Structures are given as structure tokens and as C-alpha cells.
Amino acid sequence: MITKVAVVGATGRLGSLVCDIVEQSSDYDLVARLDSKGPLEDMLGAQIAVDVTLPGVSQRVVDFAVSHGISVVVGTSGWSADRITSLENHLAGSEVGVLVIPNFSLGSALATSFATIAARYFESIEIVETHAATKVDSPSGTAVRTAELMGVARATLGPVIAPHTDQRARGQQVASIPIHSLRLDGVLARQDVVFSGNGETVTVSHQTLSNESYRAGIHLALDAARTATGVTVGLDKLIDLGGAG
Predict the structure, then answer these.
(1) Average pLDDT rounded to a whole number, residues 129-155
(2) What domains does the chain contain, in order, with CATH numbers?
(3) Residue 243: which pLDDT band, with cuts at 50, 70 and 90?
(4) What pLDDT does residue 240 have?
(5) Residue pair 188/209 in contact by the 8 Å Cβ criterion
(6) CA–CA separation, 132 and 13 (whole Å)
(7) What does the pLDDT read at residue 245?
(8) Per-residue pLDDT averaged across 201-209, rounded?
(9) Contacts 24+ apart (CB under 8 A), 87-93
(10) Cβ atoms of residues 61 and 54 within 8 Å
(11) In degrees to the nearest 10, what's the CA dihedral of 142, 232, 32, 106?
(12) Strand 48-51 versus strand 71-74 pairing type
């Protein structure tokens, strides 16, 4: 059965890629391309809406889609744990599904899982995330998600060692872990999670070299959205990590 898809934020790089994937697939039909300012009514008739807009727009897109029985794949940053909890409460008992995917890269999902494992063994942890100068939000959704998952993994261990966090240069803390955001021309995306212990450091690093790295993850998210209910967060929930994390 063919699933009808609307893409909101279709004029951006990621939105253009999503449109290309949908159009090339025999399982999906692209019924609407909306930019971030377009009338949301244009998505009516779709069964899945893919939101790749801006942090200040995303909430409105999701609210509109959900209120009209349209499942959503969210590829926009800015969905904090509090916002996700509120969405979970709103969708309780609903047949609509919302998948919040901070990063569509399979490699990024794996790197985050590796970092979550390592978080239990080190007391000093910091994240350095780098994106293009055009990225308007910081820290990135991927970095926030990574820190939150490491915080859960360390729930019985307490906060990490992060001295002098009252100084702005020490980054923004998420789950007690400092995150440092770089915004540079010529860069797509990179994240380094640095762990330090007695006499050693370990760095879990992932770099995105091309938007093509998102194709497999977008396919996974679209397939999952066809039957999803409630809220699903992270590409890691859609792949077999062999019990990692």
C-alpha cells in the first residue's frame, strides 16, 4: 500500500533529500512540498508529515499534524526532554505516532550508543559538536540527545566532574555534561564525546561528510512512521544495537 507523505521544510538541504527519497520509492507518494512559512493546510491528505523546518516552527507543525491525525517524522532540532514529555502526555492513547529523530545518520546513532556505554566508566565527560555556520540553534539536537542518554546511563553514579561551569566558556550543561558548540563555514557536522579518567582519555567521534549519510535513516524513519503510535525518540530505537547501552 502506498503511503502519502508531505514534507515541511522541503526547500532546505535535508528537506530536498527527503523529497528525493520519497519520490524514488514505490512505497510512498509525495503529495505536498511546504517551505517553513507555507500554509500547513497544504499537508492535509497526507498520512505522514516530515518536519525538517526550524526550531521555532517545528512545534506548530507537529501540533497541526497530530490534531489532524497525521503521523510525523521530526528531523528538526530543539526538542528537549521536557517538550518530548509534554508530547508523550498529549498523545497518550492516540493512534498517531511522532518519531523525533535528532540525527538520521546510522553512524551517529551508533556513536551515541558507544558513548552511552562508556559514560558508566568515566567521571569526566564533555561534548564538542561542530556544525555549519548557518545552523541557528545550539547545542545540536544530537548533542543534547547524547548527553541525556549518558545521564540516564549514569543515573546511579551521579553527575560528572565538570569544574568551573559558572564560566560561560565552559559550555552549556545538559544532564551535568558540558556541551561546546562550534559553528564554522565549510563544515557539515561533527561530534566528539571526550571521556577522561586516571591516566587516559577516550574520544568517541562521528563526522558527517555528506547528506547522503542520512538516506538509510530517513528510510527507516518513514517505514516506522507507517505503524507508529505515541512518541519514539532517536534512530537507535529503530535499529538493532544488540543490547548496547
Answers:
(1) 94
(2) 3-104+211-238 (3.40.50.720), 106-208 (3.30.360.10)
(3) low
(4) 76
(5) yes
(6) 12
(7) 46
(8) 97
(9) 87/62, 87/231, 88/230, 88/231, 90/66, 91/66, 91/229, 91/230, 91/231, 92/230
(10) no
(11) 50
(12) parallel
Crossing angle (nearest 10°) for helices 106-118 and 141-153: 30
Give the residue numbers annotated as catalytic, written as ranges: 131, 135
Q: Are 50 and 77 in contact (CB under 8 A)?
A: no
Residue 99 forms beta bridges with which residues?
73, 232
Q: Which helix (H) or strand (E) holds 192?
A: strand 189-197
- Asked if residues 236 and 103 have their Cβ atoms less than 8 Å apart, the reply is no
* Cell, residue 145: 540527545
Query: What sign results for the dihedral spanned by CA atoms 110, 134, 220, 213?
Result: negative
Q: Is the Cα torsion angle 217, 152, 203, 141 positive or negative in sign?
A: positive
Q: What is the pLDDT of residues 74-101, one digit of tens each?
A: 999 888 888 999 999 999 888 999 999 9
| Cell, residue 192 | 566528539
Average pLDDT value for residue range 124-135: 96
Grid coordinates representing 53 are 523546518
